[in-house]
């Protein structure tokens, strides 16, 4: 009798854990969907109807420019390149915790880069090249420890490169050309020993080129 009771308890616990995992997965899916809808809502102009498929007629993983992981229905990639999108970049994008690539280059995004992007600890590629973004580069991006490609060139960014970016030891490409960045070329560039591409032309850097660049 005790054996049967124990077996029933074990089955109950297994079902409870399974349902809990399922609920958590569904919550994650809904978070991704709501985050994408918040991104769409912030867009003021979409002349090419790039986001027209972003509605409830199909699953959000089938929306244009969206890719999901193989093991789960969580967004891993957003790629909306050259679609004439105009509007601010929604900070709710940072709620998609499985996101690895955020590629919205060659559009007309304006406003500042949301510091919340630093919450995307799985992010490997951030490409906001050729938009109308302004303000400073958020120091919080340094929290994206897996970041390999950071491309912010051809915007209207100002200020110094945050010292915190020196923590991005996996960085392979850094593109910050044609902004209005100022200050000295930082010593922490020598930390990027995996860097293969560096574009920093047409800014307002001053001082000498640091010897630490030889470490790259």
From TrEMBL:
Record's subcellular location: Membrane
One cellular component term from this protein's GO annotations in UniProt: membrane
Membrane topology of this protein: Single-pass type I membrane protein
Positions of the Leucine-rich repeat-containing N-terminal plant-type domain: 30-67
Keyword field: ATP-binding, Glycoprotein, Kinase, Leucine-rich repeat, Membrane, Nucleotide-binding, Receptor, Repeat, Signal, Transferase, Transmembrane, Transmembrane helix
InterPro entries assigned to the protein according to its UniProt record, in alphabetical order: DNA_repair-toleration, Leu-rich_rpt, LRR_dom_sf, LRR_N_plant-typ
GO molecular function, one term: ATP binding
Pfam families: LRR_1, LRRNT_2
Domain of life: Eukaryota
Signal peptide: 1-25
Protein name as annotated: LRR receptor-like serine/threonine-protein kinase EFR
Organism whose genome encodes this protein: Heracleum sosnowskyi
